[in-house]
UniProtKB/TrEMBL annotation:
Enzyme class: hydrolase
The organism of origin for this protein: Streptomyces broussonetiae
Keywords per UniProt: Hydrolase, Protease
Domain of life assignment: Bacteria
GO molecular function: peptidase activity
Domain Lon proteolytic intervals: 154-238
Protein name (Swiss-Prot/TrEMBL): S16 family serine protease
Length: 263
């Protein structure tokens, strides 16, 4: 019977279920989150009136410049994201459509997610402190570090926390600042041994960094391609794989000597 239909009718008839699927897709919530550039925070400064990094048991330097950790903001786990939102976010450079499970890996319960993100942040802070003190060859029995950053969860500030501790205790190692007075931003997880890991959302984080005055962005080397995809004008990428490498790159940039890697 279908083979006997003229071509126009065949198209119309076969299109009916497709139209139905499109209408259903438009109306149905989809398992995605829409993300955009979030807040940044200078780990060398204060957050809501409280120092982000507090150190006791060792002399602390006065620092210049900024080390800004970066974030993304995403629709909540219970938000209704439809096909129109996905299509709009897909084509915009200031938004990204991400699988909800990649943004909220612990489930749909808001309290459970908050607990998970809080625990991830705590573990990141512990690892950042251990990595920084190990790099400086200082024992955590003598030096106590407290890290405070409100309303931020997850592990992606680890690298910047470690760099902030190093800058406050040792700077560039010869009396100067790691930042060279610049606004440096970045992202990356960190392990206690100083290994830097990828985090996701770096293209949005570079936009947040540039918006808040950064001219240099430290990015996990594995995410160089993503970071370059929509790189804001005036922002220089420096790939990193370890805390030691990140410090050496910043010192070379500050002193204008030595090789500074690029993506």
């Amino acid at each position: 019977m279908f083979s006997r239909l003229s071509r126009p009718w065949a198209v119309v008839v076969s299109a009916v279920p497709v139209v139905g699927l499109i209408v259903t897709a438009v109306a149905a919530p989809l398992p995605f989150s829409v993300a955009q550039p979030g807040m940044t925070a200078n780990v060398l400064g204060e957050d809501k009136g409280t120092p982000v990094i507090t150190i006791s048991g060792a002399d602390v330097r006065e620092t210049r410049g900024q080390l800004r950790m970066t974030t993304i903001e995403a629709t909540g786990p219970d938000a209704r994201v439809g096909l129109g939102d996905v299509l709009d976010g897909w084509w915009r450079t200031d938004q990204a459509v991400m699988p909800r499970d990649s943004v909220y890996p612990s489930g749909d319960n808001l309290k459970e997610i908050e607990r998970y993100n809080t625990e991830q942040m705590r573990q990141s802070q512990d690892a950042a402190t251990e990595a920084a003190l190990s790099y400086l060859k200082l024992g955590d029995d003598d030096v106590k570090v407290t890290l405070e950053l409100a309303d931020v969860g997850g592990p992606s500030a680890g690298l910047l926390f470690s760099l902030g501790i190093v800058d406050k205790l040792d700077g560039d190692g010869s009396g100067g600042d790691l930042t060279g007075g610049r606004v440096i931003a970045g992202t990356g997880t960190i392990d206690p041994d100083g290994t830097v890991g990828p985090v996701g959302g770096v293209a949005l984080k570079t936009q947040a960094a540039r918006r808040d005055g950064a001219t240099v962005f430290l990015v996990p080397k594995a995410e160089c391609t993503d970071a370059k995809s929509d790189l804001p004008e005036g922002l220089r990428l420096i790939p990193v794989t370890t805390l030691k490498g990140a410090v050496e790159s910043l010192v070379a940039l500050e002193k204008g000597s030595g090789s500074v890697p690029s993506c």
